[in-house]
Amino acid sequence: MMPPAPLRTLQQRRPAAAVLAALVGLVLSACAPLPDIAAQTNTAATGPAPVLVPLDGILAQADAVGSGEGAVAPLDARASRLRARAAALRSQ
Predict the structure, then answer these.
(1) Tens of pLDDT along 19-67?
(2) Which residues of 27-55 are buried (b: 16+ CB within 10 A; e: fewer)?
(3) Dihedral over Cα of 18, 20, 24, 27: its sign
(4) What DSSP string runs through 34-83?
(5) Measured between alpha carbons, how far is 91 from 88 in angstroms, rounded to an integer?
(6) For the whole prediction, is pTM greater than 0.90?
């Protein structure tokens, strides 16, 4: 049995209605006022440029904090204590 004719015409109009809605949306967005980008990028209003720091000083600070064996040993000790505790809990 075939569907009634008005249903078919409604299904045929759906793509046209979607295209029309998209076109209306595009037209409305094209009418929107554009922001003044030149006024927003004024360097006098944003302040001075950031100062670049040499990378050598940052690396020296990282080495002073400790990235060697002295920083890793306490973490290894805690990990071994936690493993021993987990083993003890499993055996109970």
Answers:
(1) 888 899 888 888 878 777 766 666 555 677 778 888 888 888 777 666 5
(2) eeeeeeeeeeeeeeeeeeeeeeeeeeeee
(3) positive
(4) PP-HHHHT-HHHH-SPPPP--HHHHHHHHHHH--SHHHHHHHHHHHHHHH
(5) 5
(6) no
